[in-house]
Amino acid sequence: MNNDLIIQGLTKKFVTGTLPALSNINLTITEGQLTTLLGPSGCGKTTTLNCIAGLEQPDEGVIRIGDFYMTDTGRKLILPPEQRQIGMVFQSYALWPHMKVFDNVAFSLKLQKVSGSEIKKRVIDALELVDLGDLSGRYPFQLSGGQQQRVALARAVVTRPRLLLLDEPLSNLDAKIRETSRVWLRELQQRVGITTVYVTHDQSEAFAMSDKIAVMSKGNLLQYSPPEELYEHPATQFVAEFIGATSFLKGIVTSVEGNKVSVRLSNGDEMKISDHSERHWQMNNEVVVAIRSERVEVASDDKQGGNILHAGILSSTFLGSKWQHVVDTGSGSLKVETVDTVSEKRLSLFLPPDSILLFPAE
Amino acid sequence: MTAAKPELKPGPISRLKFSWDRIVQWSLVLITVLLVVFPSWPIVYQSFLDSPLYEKARNFTLNNYTHILGDMHFWRILGYTLAFAFVTTVVAAIIGIILAVLINRTNIPMRGAYVNLVSIPYYVSPLVLAFAYMEMYGPQGFGTILVRMLGLPTWQLYTFGGIVVVAAMYYIPYTFLYASSSLALSDPQLESAARIGGATPFQTILYITIPLLRPAITYSVLLTLVSSLELLSIPLVLGNSVGIDTLSTYLYTLGVVGVSKDYGAIAVVSIFVIVMVTFLVYLQGRLTNLEKRFVTVGGKATRPKLLDLGPAKMLVSVFVGLYVILGIILPLACIMLESFVSFLSPFMNPLKVLTLNNYRDIFLTPAYRQSVVNSINISIFAAGIGILFMALVALTAYRSTFKGRNLVKYLALYPRAFPGIIIGIGFLWAFLLVPGIGSLRNTIVVMSIAFTMRYLPLGFSAISPAVLQISDELDRAARVAGATWLGTIRHIMLPILRPALLSGYILLAISFLKEYATALFLFSEGSRVMGTTMLELWRQGGAEPVAALSTIQMLITAVLILVSGRLLGVKLHE
Predict the structure, then answer these.
(1) Rounded to a whole number, what is the distance in Å from the CA of B6 to chain A's nearest CA?
(2) Which of A105, A299, B277, B305 would bridge with B417, disulfide CB 3.0–4.6 Å?
(3) How much helix, strand and coil, in percent to the nearest 5, is found in chain A?
(4) Are the beta carbons of A108 and B491 separated by less than 8 Å?
(5) Above 70 in pLDDT, residue A212?
């Protein structure tokens, strides 16, 4: 049987206050895969997650795993969280401070009236799964942040739930542990093979962990793609900006030949762009050119096969492994990276045609 | 652990399982509604009747309203009550703030001891305080006579000024405690920033520390105002013999002492008071909301540097010490001493008239003994059940998806608008009206229910901050883990709330022990409490037995505070 998580027409109207609304979210998450809900705070990703968990109630929509309906507003069915058989890791880990690690993990099993010996076996299995077998007698406050997060994970999977929900589980960790944790977490998720929904606002986390990423903004689902596709072909300017394109210049389309588009920037410079989107451009369209700073090269004027822009340096910042410069192209400012310091006041910038993305002006 | 392949148990149609959650929530709300409505409606009803509400021949009328509102005497009493409440509040607030800043933020000697000493009146019944002042500073008081013997000028306690001073003594701890806990919570970095910016320590206190106290001051000032408007004991004990009346003593005289009880008048005056206090309580809520911008985010709990008062610190400490000794210790010591002698006077050596007769009288007279037993039972058992109920109401209000949860908040806080004496009237009349439950009046069950209603706001606000402090992810995690709402409360919330429940319980137990106003109309043969017996004895002129009862009450309170503090680590105030 197909046990995909299916979300259809999920809508939550604006409540007084600052809660984000959801408008008609549709998502299918393949069984055993990890999908990330990515977006800035207030985009609706946490609301979506809470609706899946049953912690918040949508106004409309269906949420089901295969034929197991958890929410179906048409039938006035909204299962309370405790009847959904899911596991969840919260941002603060939400370990119950008055219970030892063992009791935290055993809580669900006790409620399910699992026998004592079975509970013991499964709790120890779960703790070993997260490499914390010997800490079962500690209280949560005696653990480090990373250990707490792993206990929370053990607690979430001990019941063998049909779905695992992760609400920014790494955001409270130090930068260093965060990177090892995400590798570990992804590896564990794949080993257990559990369908997982992951919420974060950190795009590098999303790229590193996901089978698919759903980018959200203001309650809308903007794009739902695998990470590589998302990076290469962002659907909108917002998505491009959110996943790392750093500079935007305005311009007007001057010629279109197949997917080769020429754009004139505001200071008269012409740029040639290979556009891989499905959009149909026409002469005199007002457009925005998005440029990824990591693709821009500082080069000499005679370099062929791309666009050359001349720009004056406005400021330079040393970031440790590299320099970042803000430069003025005459049509707007750009961010550029170099490995070494730059002594010149003006730079020639080489932009390959496929490093540039094109969006309609908003 | 093997890879966990989810197995789908339910078929295509999932069905909601039955749960007790909603039923329990509805019951809690229903009980809360009943607690508020039950004593209110007879008062409203009676205010439109021309004869007592239990009589058969009764007709609707508006005469009660025209009669009272057209009575100059009523308006004079209202004016007097307002003047009394406002002056008391201002005096209590000013002294309370000064004491809070001096004791918490300056280096005066003995400040550690002062913290506890200054708070004492908070835990003493105002009735006991009134008796204590009467015995110490009244016209025939120990202290008054002593001063007169020394040929020094004396004072008149039974005056507007005298009553205000005693009432202020009772209310100073309110401002003091709220301001102190606000001082303890405020971020010391705010003061450090002012010092870095060039402010002297004194300027820092004046421009930063005290203005930051504004929410605490606003809150405690309005609390004092509301409470002093309905205060019965101090004006009654000190003003009765010279004909001073406030709305509360007026109600008391109309309903308890008066020969012919004018039920209509009592009802109209009660409604008038409720409306007035409701307005103040509403104002308090609004102002407290407006003051939220002052709430500072707590920083690291580094102790702020204390302001060095230099050579003046000794003098200031002496002043605070005099306040504590003359205002608190001596009157209370006087009434305790009096309970152990046959007659207290500066003219004779108290050691020569030592006796335990006063205590023997209390314990050998069944009615008096019963009042002590009743009070203890109410404060142990009713307060225990009460705090659990109030915690569940708070959890319904703040941690449920119950539709009417906002209404629950208002309902739980609304009894603040009901003076104790009026709650007593309401319950009494409700018992007269509802057939078949009259016999309950003779038991402490009724008293317990009425006290629970009176202190519902206290218990609710004692528990609520603790509930709000618990991250909602903790109960969400329990729900996701498979617990129902009730299961979450039982396994997660109540265990975590244990310290708050314990201190709430002690606070409630002390309040139940002190309470007298609610019981005045309501009590009958089997349900008297210490407060009602004290007032009875006082009216019969028995100063020494009153002193003995007062001492017993203070002793029990002290034991409650010390035992709970030592054994259970209960802190009644931050």
Answers:
(1) 4
(2) B277
(3) 30, 35, 40
(4) no
(5) yes
Q: B538-552 pLDDT, tens per residue?
A: 999 888 999 999 999
Residue ranges of the domains in chain B? 22-55+356-574, 62-355
**What CATH superfamily is the domain B62-355?**
MetI-like (1.10.3720.10)
Among A2, A6, A82, which would you mutate to test the B interface (most chain B Cβ atoms within 10 Å of its Cβ)? Answer: A82
Q: Do domains B22-55+356-574 and B62-355 have the same CATH topology?
A: yes
Q: How far apart are CA A166 and CA A172, in angstroms?
A: 13
How far CA A291 is from CA of A223, A233, A258, A342, A350, in Å, comes to 20, 13, 21, 21, 11
* Interacting residues of A42 by C-beta distance below 8 A, sequence separation 6+: A18, A20, A218
Q: Which of B6, B9, B492 faces A3 most closely, judged by CB atoms?
A: B6
Domain B22-55+356-574 classification at class level: mainly alpha
- Whether residue A82 lies within 8 A of chain B, CB to CB, comes out as yes
| CB contact A42 to B (< 8 Å) | no
What are the angstrom distances between the C-alpha of B324 and each of B32, B96, B116, B118, B165? 41, 13, 10, 6, 14
pLDDT tens digit sequence for A4-37:
999 999 999 876 655 558 989 999 999 999 999 9
- Reported ipTM: the value is 0.80
Nearest CB neighbour to B474, from listed A82, A85, A94 = A94
Q: Looking at the complex, does the CB of residue A32 fall below 8 Å from at least one CB of chain B?
A: no
Q: Which residues of B touch A53 (CB under 8 A)?
A: 476, 480
**Does residue B507 contact residue B500 with C-beta atoms inside 8 Å?**
no
**How many CA atoms are closer than 13 Å to the CA of B369, on its beta-carbon side?**
7
Compute the distance between CA of residue B367 and CA of residue B361 in angstroms, rounded to an integer.
11
Strands A87-89 and A164-167: parallel
Across B501-523, average pLDDT: 93
Q: Could you tell me if A173 and A181 are in contact, meaning their C-beta atoms sit under 8 angstroms apart? A: yes
Residue among B6, B471, B487 minimizing CB distance to A162: B6
Q: Are A52 and A163 in contact (CB under 8 A)?
A: yes
| Residue to test with chain B: of A68, A105, A150, most B Cβ within 10 A | A68
Residues of chain A found within 8 Å of residue B19, distances taken between Cβ atoms: 80
Taking the CA of residue A127 and the nearest CA in chain B, the distance in Å comes to 10
User: Closest Cα partner for B339 from B544, B143, B146, B177?
Assistant: B544
Joined together, the tokens standing for residue A8 give: 């259809």
Given a cut of 80, is residue B168 above it in pLDDT? yes
CB contact under 8 A, A122 and B471: no
Predicted TM-score (pTM) of this structure: 0.84
Token duo for residue A318? 């040393």
Interface membership of A328 toward B (CB under 8 Å): no
